[in-house]
Amino acid sequence: MGNGLLTFEFDVREIDALFDDMSSAYQKAAVNTLNKVGRGANREAAKFIKSNYNIPAKALKISGAGRKVILKRADARRAFVGFTINVLQSRRGLMLYGAKKTAKGVRVRVKKKTKNIKGAFISTWRRGDDNKFVFVRDPKEGFYKKGEARRTKRRTLLGPSIADLYGSRRVRRLIDTAVRRNFQKELDEQFNNQFEKRR
Question: Edge to edge, what strands does the sheet with 132-137 contain?
């Protein structure tokens, strides 16, 4: 739980074959390309998530801070590994999705449409606690006694974590498409920039 890392691994075996013979200009161009293409793919992923889920841009901005690609030999097959972003792995409480009490349950909007969860209620873990959560009574959690009454234990309802959203098939495909679409064009531009600097 908490924060984790999501790494874009670029399978660039053609570049790897030339790695030892690369000049510093080529190496720098390759690193700049991976950083720029990786950041661009992350922006497209974040844009898709924001348009489909009720998640503020601030949450994705904090979780999607890019770390620079490091040029290295990870193994015999890959020359570059490492556009890494921080992602929030812990699942998000439904209070973050605008949860409101209704006559029959709790209304939330995780995706585009608002949904009413029947039987759900808003409460705190204990008296005096300021943090509120959305709960539902669940027989699978067991029972407890309160005086003479037999009560069903409650279960916290949570929305998806940002890590889950980044790891979804749709977002992974979007990232892959963005990288394939932009890699060669950006690499050519970076090579030209490096050669212009050395004239």
Answer: 121-124, 132-137, 154-156
- Verify that 99 and 81 share a domain, yes or no: no
- Based on the fold, state whether residues 100 and 129 are members of the same structural domain: yes
Residues spanned by the domain of 102: 93-158
Structure confidence by residue, pLDDT tens digits, 11-32: 555 555 555 555 677 777 877 8
pLDDT at 198: 66
Q: Average pLDDT over the chain, rounded to whole?
A: 77
Verify that 68 and 145 share a domain, yes or no: no
Residue whose entry in the numeric block shows the structure tokens 């999607």: 64
| Same structural domain, 62 and 115 | no
> What is the bridge-based pairing of β-strands 92-93 and 115-118?
unpaired
Tell me which residue of 32, 29, 34 sits closest to 8, measured CA to CA. 34
Question: What is the SS3 assignment for 175?
Answer: helix
Q: Does residue 64 sit in helix, strand or coil?
A: coil
